[in-house]
Amino acid sequence: MNRRDALKYMALPAAGALLNTVARPLLAAEPAVGPAAELTQALATYQRLRFGCSFHFSTPTFTGDDYDVGAAPATVYNPTHLDVRQWIQVAHGMGAKYAILTTKYMSGFCLWDSKGYDYDVAASGNKTDVVAAFVAACREFGLQPGFYYSILDPHNEGKFDWDSQIPDHYFPLIQHHITELHSTYPNTFYQLFDITWKLTAAQRWELYRLVKSYSPNCIIVDNQGFKQSRVNQGRFCEPASWPSDVINGEDTLPPLEGHDPHITYQKKTYYMPFETWLPTGPLYPPMPWMHTWFWHPWYKPQSPEVIAEAYRDCMKGNANLLLNLAPDNTGRIPENQVETFKRVAELIRINAC
């Protein structure tokens, strides 16, 4: 069974806080800066690149829990042979043109030394600024760098709740982190926000404007989530994922008829490309309807044939592909993944001939 058929027939849970979101009405008028009504130069560049890689690497790599709530001390993060350059070299070898890093996952741990913040690499067992190393490696290999940032953050929210709006004290920290990232690395290519339904519409607009103030051409993506992606397949944008420049599909391929980027939202038409965001790991045992994003001792990547077929589906379906890689707890992409991705590159080239 190929990946498309497997995804089609994979059973979804009937309910659960993880997979449900609350569609809230917009609370703020649309500002001058917003998603594009027509194809822009920035969106055209994004579409031309077509293929990127994301990297899930943070405290879950060391705690073994994809949904790490940030209870472990910062010292649990301690890669012994960290080699961010190797990550980007592997992505480059597959033909990726852009790369996205989990700068802060839901555990609250930051992969850079954030000023006035004590749950980051500066307080850990390995003080390397991973964001700086990541941006430098992207520049060396000619990939456009981008950042992932999780809104859900039990470490800073004080509780683990997928759906409740964030507490008032937490939003200034989010603004502080995003300001640090984009003021340090202005004109960043891409910014992905995860679990955005925990924000009000006004807060989502504020983050959108904040990123654009430092990186005007940045492609901003508000992740819709797993269930929502499977339901809409990029045919419309979820209210809780607005504003967004691109509609993403978490572990979801584009529709069989291909993606039409002309999307109507609140009676207005926007130009919104589609991006399949695909984990390459196995199913995650605690949630067997979903694939794991992080490395585990039992981690085995999906077959090169399955990954290459997903790549072909995206290219045929007028969609970008963001393929996730999982560095291990030494800080490197392990050899079984490296060999898998070498074969993926071969299959992609064979198909292109």
Tell me the layout of helices and strands.
Blueprint lengths: L2 H7 L31 H9 L1 E5 L4 H4 L20 H11 L3 E7 L25 H12 L2 E7 L3 H4 L13 H14 L5 E5 L6 H14 L4 E4 L3 H7 L14 E4 L11 E4 L2 E4 L2 E6 L3 E2 L2 E5 L12 H13 L2 E7 L9 H18 L1
Parallel strand pairs: 1-2, 1-12, 2-3, 3-4, 4-5, 6-9, 9-12
Antiparallel strand pairs: 7-8, 10-11
Account of the protein in words:
With 353 residues, the protein is of the alpha/beta class. The chain has one domain (52-352): Glycosidases (TIM Barrel, Alpha-Beta Barrel), CATH 3.20.20.80. The protein is built from eleven helices and twelve strands. The strands form three sheets. Strands 5-4-3-2-1-12-9-6 form an eight-stranded parallel beta sheet, sandwiched between helices. Strands 7-8 form a two-stranded antiparallel sheet. The protein has a two-stranded antiparallel ribbon with strand order 10-11. β4, α8 and β5 (219-222) form a beta-alpha-beta unit. The longest helix has 18 residues, at 335-352. The chain starts with a helix and ends with a helix.
Short description:
The chain is an alpha/beta fold and 353 residues long. The chain has a single domain (52-352), classed as TIM Barrel (Alpha-Beta Barrel). 32% of the residues lie in helices and 17% in strands.
What labels would you give this structure?
two-stranded antiparallel sheet; 353 residues; 11 helices; single chain; alpha/beta; 32% helix; TIM Barrel; 8-stranded parallel β-sheet; disordered N terminus
